[in-house]
Amino acid sequence: MPDAEADFAFLVHPLRRWQRPLLGVRLLHLPLFLGRDAGIDGVGAVARVDVETAAGWCRGLVVSVPDTAERLAAEQGRALAHQERAAQVAMGVGVRAIGLGNALAVVAGRGKALAERTATPVTTGNASTAWACATITKQVLADRGAPRGPVGLLGFRGTVGEAVAATLAADGVEVFVDVAGRAARTAEQLGCVPVSLDDLLRRPSVFVGASTTGPVIPAARLPTGAILVDLALPPTLEPGPRPSGLRVVAGERLRLPGAVRRDVWGAIWLALARYGRGCVFACFAEPIAIALGGVVPSGRHLSVDDVAAAGAQLSRLGFRPVVTD
Amino acid sequence: MSDLPDHVNAQVFSTVQRCFCETLELDPDEVSWDAKVLEDLGAESIDLLDVVFRLESAFDIQIPRGGLEARARDVDGDPGEIDGRLTAAGAQRLREVMPEVPAGEITEGMKTSEIPMIFRVGTFYHIVAALVEAKGRPLGA
Fold first, then answer.
1. Chain B contacts of A102, Cβ < 8 Å?
2. A197 touches chain B (CB under 8 A)
3. Which letter, b or e, does each residue of A137-176 get, where b requires 16 or more Cβ atoms within 10 Å of its Cβ?
């Protein structure tokens, strides 16, 4: 089935070491199966996931590289070579857009190096992720009867965090961010309020976790009854006791517009990706939108318009941000 | 831009500067020798990964992850850090390998997780210079 034509590709990597042997079974690759080092021949198509949208079916190919996030970050030259090989596999079946999943979206120049080496558009999904998160956060605020916030946002320094903060502020939401120096000046220009971390955790009851490097605060520091809209992977909260009534909401989950067609390995991959039944994460949806004629927003800093454009193209296709735990 | 120390090769620094500019979408005059990478340039940890990738490509080197923190460890039998905090020997060693950072910013008891907060642009120059010279290549060649 992976040899059939596809419209978009999504490049992934094992999230845990135990997933490498599974990948070895899928690709009939002995070193991977045995947990050993796997070179460029450990890159391969692993699953088919076709998505029905308002504009018709979009056929997807999931292509995996063999390395975990830690190694991808430690050896970015190797990561790029694996990305290129994965892109070749994808272009061999005619894809019109390539999405980068998880750590593949942050290594090797955040996909820029790959984009310079391929004729097919490459995306990290940042704009769609920011749109999904901002929309979900606004829904959470509305459900709380406080559509103007305030919101405490962790991770403003990152591309997605900054874009979410800017989008919320542009919609009239009061957004506190814990940054100093240059980032604080940027935050003020975007209409956000730079404060200390202590103040950020004290004032609002709705938070956005957009840190790019995993646990940043102990859960116990959040107030009772807080809601955290969490984008971070690993999650924003450190392990430990949680305040009563704390709710953690997925920050980038989208309800699928229609049916999904997948092979057996596609079903396994969707389960491992933990998108949830009938849902995907926004980073997976963005290459679908691009393959169906959408634009590719890119850059270290995304504007409010970039985020809105990504949201508009996903909305037209029928994807809907959804508030779920 | 602040003046460069005498020992700095301007051509190499210019390349380091360009890597920061491209990653962070900044003008060269904003990326000075002594600018704090996180606070003054507004970078975050993923930006550092991006900068490292660009430096590795530009200089054909491989920068080990956590290289600076690692250099503070195991000094003459002293572990350099205990429970994630610098020992006196670790702090002294770090002052030696990070001469671009004012000595008062590196103290015994400092959390190793906070070391990136004191990185200067010059820190990355020194990492690059050390790796290039270790490969037997003259700086600026």
1. none
2. no
3. bbbbbeeeebeebbbbbbbbbbbbbbbbbbbbbbbebbbb
pLDDT digits (tens, 9 = 90+) for A276-301: 899 999 999 999 999 998 887 778 89
Is beta strand A44-53 parallel, antiparallel or unpaired with respect to A60-64?
antiparallel
Q: Answer yes or no: is B141 within a domain.
A: no
Q: Give the HSE-up count for residue B125: Cα atoms under 13 Å, Cβ half-sphere.
A: 28
Domains of chain A: 8-124+255-321 (no CATH), 127-251 (3.40.50.720)
> Are the beta carbons of A244 and A225 closer than 8 angstroms?
yes
Residue B122 within a domain: yes
**CB B29, CB A42: distance < 8 Å:** no
| Per-position DSSP letters for A224-252, written without gaps between them | TT-EEEE--SS-SEESS---TT-EEEESS
The reply to whether B4 falls in a domain is no
Is there a domain that residue B5 lies in? no
Q: Give the structural domain span for B50.
A: 10-134
User: Domain containing B129 — which CATH number?
Assistant: 1.10.1200.10
The pTM of this model reads 0.90
Q: Is A107 on the interface with B (CB under 8 A)?
A: yes
- Give ipTM to 2 decimals: 0.83
Chain B residues whose C-beta is within 8 A of a chain A C-beta are: 23-25, 36, 38-47, 49-50, 52-54, 56-57, 62, 64-65
SS3 A196: coil
CB A79 within 8 A of CB A102: no
By the CB < 8 Å criterion, does A75 face chain B? yes
- The domain tally of chain B equals 1
d(CA B123, CA B101): 8
With CB atoms and an 8 Å threshold, state whether B46 touches A108: no
Chain CA centroid to CA B25, Å: 20
Sort out which chain B residues have CB atoms less than 8 A from A73's CB and list them. Answer: 49, 65
Exposed / middle / buried, residue A223 (Cβ in 10 Å: 0-12, 13-18, 19+): middle
pLDDT in tens, A40-82: 989 999 999 999 999 999 999 999 999 998 899 989 999 999 9
